[in-house]
Design goal:
This protein has about 130 residues and is mainly α. The protein is built from five helices and no strands.
Length: about 130
């Protein structure tokens, strides 16, 4: 289970890095001409939809059709937010692995695999480790 958890953690870290790289591309799209920005955003919207579906387990909304600067900046912010969410999954997974809590790892692995939310909620999450005051 430890090796499987480590593999999932590494995969999720790569997803975080990819989302941050895509956010940087979206941010740079703010500073290019409209035709190029439209082309870049048309390539990034499906990536955002896939990441949103990965995180939430639900089909994402259709992509916006405008290619203005505000949309590019908003897309960059949304991609960074998705990266933060996945990074939170990584942190929970790492904490569960450190404390050898297989149940928490299983729930996070189910979330990563896209299991329905109702199935994930049936698996109890471990409580946070106590704060060390020594």
């Amino acid at each position: 289970m430890q090796a499987e958890t480590e593999g999932i953690r590494r995969e999720m870290e790569r997803i975080v890095a990819l989302l941050l790289a895509l956010a940087a591309i979206a941010e740079r799209a703010c500073h290019v001409a409209h035709p190029l920005r439209a082309r870049l955003l048309s390539q990034l919207w499906p990536a955002e939809a896939a990441a949103l579906e990965y995180v939430s387990g639900e089909t994402a909304l259709p992509a916006p059709m405008s290619a203005d600067i505000a949309e590019a900046a908003g897309l960059a912010a949304r991609l960074r937010l998705l990266a933060i969410v996945v990074a939170g999954f990584v942190a929970r997974l790492a904490a569960a692995a450190r404390h050898r809590v297989a149940v928490g790892s299983l729930r996070i692995a189910c979330a990563v695999a896209g299991a329905p939310r109702a199935a994930q909620e049936r698996i109890p999450l471990p409580s946070a480790p106590p704060f060390d005051t020594s």
